[in-house]
Amino acid sequence: MRSFLPLALLLALAGAPALALAQETAKEPEVGASDDPSAAETAPSKVPLEEIRRYVAVFNAVKEAYVEPVEDRKLMQSAIRGLLLDLDPHSIYFDKEDAQAYDEQTSGAYEGIGVDLLQQPDNTLLVVSPIDDTPAAKAGIKAGDVIVAINGKPIEKTDGMEPLRGKPGSKVTLTIAREGTAKPFDVSLVRDTIRIASVRSRLLEPGYGYVRISAFQTETAADFQKHVADLKAKGTLRGLVLDLRSNPGGLLLAAVQIADDLLDKGNIVSTRGRIVVSDSRFDATPGDLLDGAPVVVLVDAGSASASEVLAGALRDNQRARIVGSRTFGKGSVQTVLPLDNGDSVKLTTARYYTPSGKSIQARGIVPDVELHPESVDKQPEIIDYSEATLPGHLRGDDEGQEGYAAGEVLDGEKPITAALAELKKQVASTAAKAPAGRR
Questions:
Q1: Residue 157 pLDDT
Q2: How far is the C-alpha of 343 from the C-alpha of 335, rounded, in Å?
Q3: What angle in degrees, to the nearest 10, is found between the helix axes of 220-233 and 252-262?
Q4: Residue 210: pLDDT above 90?
Q5: Above 50 in pLDDT, residue 30?
Q6: How many CB atoms lie within 10 A of CB 41?
């Protein structure tokens, strides 16, 4: 189990302003009675007195009349979660234990089954992507699957993803609903310590390198540099296939660093929100690890968030061609705000914009060369799998545009072969344009 962002790290914002904002948020709200809508914009800390009275009335009614006694803390936790419930799928309240688990995942090691999930309004868990070489991937769990029960029990809102965690060697049974499958089916897995090697590489052919990035973690950018150096040590690197398929994202700064490694100049990404600390911009610095050698980026419907930022930055700067299927379309920035009691709030605070000024949200990255699975019959679960289909998602700038279609999940080696063919075209084109003395 992992999520898109780490605890207490702003994807595109500095840590100090986040903490200040968290402390401000944690203060007791100032009670006011203004009905002026503009007051809510200019003074968000003020809560109308009549709304507080209404909450207290409901709280007391539940305390006094519900069929079974309910603890005050449980009621308050439910009320706090309710504040975020109708915002968007990525704004979540974490209690202390969940917050700690959420944070540790960016180190690349945790105990569980190895899958990225989103909890849906009906409490079921949508699989964003299984993680390479983990129990979930080995058991055949696929992007777009929906976990409807764990160990035969329906998932409770308060349980969330926690039942998937556990000691290595312990067993867990998932009940999976899959598009195109008549009824849910069970999959048994053995939990393990998930150690994610987020970067892998190999030579596809002499002179043609391949780097697979499965997630963006603390060490991913440094590992990328090492893998590129290893590939170059094997001979002249004429071009690179960068595989971001089913990469759900992670640390934005890791994606920004890798974009910087491949760009000599230009904007990488910007973010815009309602408050000043939500606005940021990242630009490339001089130096290209590949010295201008062509790059092809391979993506699919499971490529989300930071993956989309990297793909968008390379394409908009004419540094890479994109091959594959439309990406997931998660173009929102989440800020994790730690609270005084150890709990945290993960709140959507801004949108990503690629260098061309386009928002990724509910749109994704459309490839230059489109690929499809070998057979729809083999992968029926990929239908309509995108941010735009999530209930309550943040609406995209171009949402509803004619001709929009969600992407598809692209498994196996054939997409890599197609990406290599496109890379060879780019290498040939670059060689044809180069001066005679530089070929």
A1: 61
A2: 14
A3: 30
A4: yes
A5: no
A6: 9
305 annotated active-site: yes
The two three-digit tokens of residue 348, written as one number = 């959507």
72: enclosing H helix or E strand: helix 72-85
Flag the least confident range among 99-103, 126-130, 138-142.
Answer: 99-103
Model confidence, pTM: 0.73
Task: Give me 217's structure tokens.
Answer: 């973690």
Cα 224–Cα 131–Cα 328 angle in degrees, nearest 5: 85
Name the more confident of 186 and 158: 186
The two structure tokens encoding residue 433: 């344009």
Q: What is the pLDDT of residue 140?
A: 92
Other Cβ atoms within 10 Å of 82 Cβ, number: 11
CA distances 145 to 69, 178, 219, 401, Å, are: 37, 5, 29, 26
CB 347 within 8 A of CB 379: no
Which phi and psi angles does 63 have, rounded to 5°? -60, -40
Quick one: pLDDT at residue 104? 63
- Among residues 88, 95, 243, 316, which one is catalytic? 316
Structure tokens at 402: 């004619």
CA distances from 335 to 19, 27, 93, 268, 370 (A): 10, 18, 12, 20, 33
- pLDDT, tens digit (0-9, with 9 covering 90-100), for 324-334: 999 999 999 98
What's the confidence (pLDDT) of residue 25?
A: 33
Does 234 participate in catalysis according to the annotation? no
Q: Nearest to residue 427, comparing CAs of 264, 235, 238?
A: 238
Of these residues, 305, 325, 332, 344, which one is catalytic? 305
Is there a catalytic annotation at residue 171?
no
Whole-number Å distance between alpha carbons of 89 and 77? 18
Q: Where are the beta strands (DSSP E) in 57-170?
A: 92-94, 109-112, 115-119, 125-130, 146-150, 153-154
From the candidates 145, 243, 300, 330, give the one annotated as an active-site residue. 330
Q: What are the tens digits of pLDDT across the range 157-174? A: 656 677 888 889 999 999
Q: Is the pLDDT of residue 273 over 50?
A: yes
